[in-house]
Structures are given as structure tokens and as C-alpha cells.
């Protein structure tokens, strides 16, 4: 029940076991073409989508490295670990203007506007900040990016396919997602949607060699990749996209929303506080719920106790180690998965004397999910 990599459905695992094919064959081209077309629907975009063999960070690097050159400014808006990754990345390529908000707190749009007023080639943000379970306001930041003519780069790695993610409507120039999150494919693929405006700014030989977006886009126009791709993962991606389409993209997002609503309801019934602070532009995530560690129990007691009973949840990262725990509800997650998780959490809390009776969390979660 961690926020990625998530459980991979049998159908997807079986697809990966197909015999190997040449990545220069017509068979591969057909698969890549189908994946790219389905990914456009998933990203809600008319932009071109390329698939890089590499984890989500490869997509982040391709975006920043392709756009930002030496001396060029990129505003990196952060309120968690992955926002900060853009800062670290940007530092390798250009001149970063980090706009840091405390982890799990909403962005201040006025501060973002002030930073853009000073001129920047690009602005980066994370839509669903997995480290703190918050959904940041891409629509509002997108408006500012357009107003100040900055290339808008959004990490949708734990969001696309789980939360609403409107690439074109929000004016996102480069959107990124990863295979191991809402699509429930094993880790190892980064999907990147690139606008015409961003494409025109990409220069030959800029940024990373392997992550050169221009090279990936050029080859993608023939449904090929510049280098040998992770072919088996492409089999898996195609199958996962078919499964997502069968369920329906809106229905799939609604399922994850209901499950996360169940986790939040259970937290409230068990007197566990949610970690992120939300406001009118910022919401709780439907793909990962971050909760404060209840008093009277340690991280190792809570997560260790759950793990011993067969349920793995995530802890906090960096400064939040021991202070929060996180439950993922992405991919193929079911109501039964969530109820079992909450039941196990309750058992551990009762054993450690944090709660005195069992059932309140499971009841609240099931009612919320069924509502
Ligand atoms: N961005 C977000 C929001 C993430 O959740 C993650 C991974 O958890 C990453 C970036 C990094 O992706 P990867 O580990 O696939 O490189």
C-alpha cells in the first residue's frame, strides 16, 4: 500500500512475459504508436507524448535539461521532496530560483507571480507531491506561467491517471508521469507530453544525451526510440493502458478518489490528523494520504507492526521520517485493499494502546467508500 511502485495486475505481468521482439520492427512500432495515442488521452492533451526508458526522474531531467541552458533561469516551486528534486536537477543545467514553501503547505501564488515578474525561462512544480500527500494548483500556476511567458513544466508522476490532470487546459508545456504509479506498471518508464511551444525551444545537443527530448521526439514521429527501449515494459504499458481504458479513465480516477476518501474518513474516526494543510487552491491527494504519526506509537511500531501482518505502508521522507506515514491508493487498488489496511492499522494501534477498541476506522472507511 505504498505510493509506488504499486501492485502490478496479472494481466500486465503476463504481457511482460511475451517473447522479445526487435525494437526496430513493425511490431514494436505498432505498440509504441498505440501507447502514445492512449497516453494522449490519459494526459488529456493533443501534445506529442514520448516514452523514455528510465524512471520518472529521467522524464524530469529530460524536461529541465532540454529547456534550460547555462545562465537561464528556472523558478522551482517546492513544498516537498519531489519539488526539491527539480531544484537539484535545474542546478545542473541553468540558474535556479527556488521558491520553497514548508513541506505540505499550500503555495503562495503572489510569491510565485513576483518570482516570474523578474523573468524566468521556465517554472517547475509537482502536481501531486507524493512526499506529503498534497495536490498543488497547476491551473493557477499555469495561468501565471502563460502571463509571464515561462515554459510550464509539471511533474505529474503520482498524479496522471489518479487525480484530474488537464495538460492542455492548464497550459502545461511539459508534463511527466511514471509507469509505477497510477498505471500500475513496474518501474522503469517515464512518459513525457511536450507542447509545440516547448518543442520549438528544444535545441540539438542541449541537456542530457540519453534524456535528449529532441532526439526522443524525432524518433517518436516514426514510432521508434533513439536507443534500445525496455521492450518488456512497453508490452506492460500497452496492456495497462488497455485495462485503464476498459475501466474508463474518469471511472478509474473516481475509484481512487473514493478509496482515498475512505482512508481520510478512517483517519478522522481514529483521531489521526492528516498531514497536509489545504486551502481553496490546494487539495488532499487521491493517490496518497499522508497522516501524522499518532502520539504513543513510534514509526517502527506502527509500520513494523503492519508489515508483520502483511501490509506495507510508507513512512515520511527526510525531515518527516518518523513523523508521518503514508498510504497509497493508486493503480489497481481496491476497496478490500483499503479495508484490510485500515483493519491492520487498527490492530496495531490497539496493541500499542493508542486506541481501546477496534472497528471505528473500518466502519468509517467502508461508509465513505460506498457513499
Ligand atoms: N516525482 C514524484 C511526485 C514522485 O512521486 C516520484 C517517485 O516517487 C518521483 C518524482 C521520482 O520518480 P522515480 O522514482 O520514478 O524516478
From TrEMBL:
One of its GO terms (molecular function) is L-serine-pyruvate transaminase activity. One of its GO terms (biological process) is glycine biosynthetic process, by transamination of glyoxylate. Pfam families: Aminotran_5. The lineage of its organism: Archaea, Methanobacteriati, Methanobacteriota, Stenosarchaea group, Methanomicrobia. Gene3D superfamilies: Aspartate Aminotransferase, domain 1, Type I PLP-dependent aspartate aminotransferase-like (Major domain). InterPro entries: Aminotrans_V_dom (IPR000192), Aminotrans_V_PyrdxlP_BS (IPR020578), PyrdxlP-dep_Trfase (IPR015424), PyrdxlP-dep_Trfase_major (IPR015421), PyrdxlP-dep_Trfase_small (IPR015422), SP_NH2Trfase/AEP_transaminase (IPR024169). This is L-aspartate aminotransferase apoenzyme / phosphoserine aminotransferase apoenzyme. Keywords: Aminotransferase, Pyridoxal phosphate, Transferase. PROSITE patterns: AA_TRANSFER_CLASS_5. Residues 18-319 form the Aminotransferase class V domain. Its cofactor is pyridoxal 5'-phosphate. The keyword Methyltransferase does not apply. It comes from Methanothrix harundinacea (strain 6Ac). Belongs to the class-V pyridoxal-phosphate-dependent aminotransferase family.
